[in-house]
Amino acid sequence: MEESIITTQNPIRSATARGLARLSYGVLHGVFKRGSAFPGNLAARIDPDVLRSLARDYDVIIITGTNGKTLTTSMIVKALRQKYPDLMTNPTGSNMMSGIISAFIAQGPHKGHGRGLAVLEVDEANVAPVSALVHVKAYVLTNIFRDQMDRYGEFYTTYQKILNGINMHPDALVVANGDAPIFSSRPLKNPMRYYGFDTGRHDNLLAPPNTDGVLCPRCEHILHYRERTYSNLGSFFCPNCGFAARS
What we know:
single chain, alpha/beta, UDP-N-acetylmuramoyl-L-alanine:D-glutamate ligase, 2 domains, 6-stranded parallel beta sheet, 8 helices, elongated, disordered N terminus
């Protein structure tokens, strides 16, 4: 698995990128009290693969989706810090490649024994580039709504960008929103866990008109709901083919 994503890295270029990025981070945060992306941009310009060396001693959990990434990341970090007090994250919500590199620059080298743990909020289109450079232990998927179409195109195009990263790490656990039909639409080699709401209700509801993503991804019949929580999320089922929520 890992051999397919590892490339040769120039150690001098990598060290130069890390050093200058740390210097810029120190100046920006010490003098201007800001600058979450520039150090990462600088490092990546010098060494496009700098994240590989910065994250080499970390196991990584990636949180992604169109909505709720920052809150979900914060909740996971607060829970895991009870066991991993030195956990690394990108708390500013700067979730593009440059912001993630800057977060590792700010944290500094892992100083503990064994491998460190990093919990990263990652923009959907950056899941694959980040996955190619780090050791991913788990992916957490929140949802995909069409309010991001102006950025990345069609509903399933956005999901494919996420899948391109997941497919690089078939042993990584995928924790997905089981109330989102799209996350059950394609089989994955990864171990899977689903979360969602289950109140035990057995209604037969339809989503309101103009709700996106309510066609069954298997047979394109209109999905029905035993309970609908928000938009197309809920305890969905297809009366035509049996496709149903996994939560």
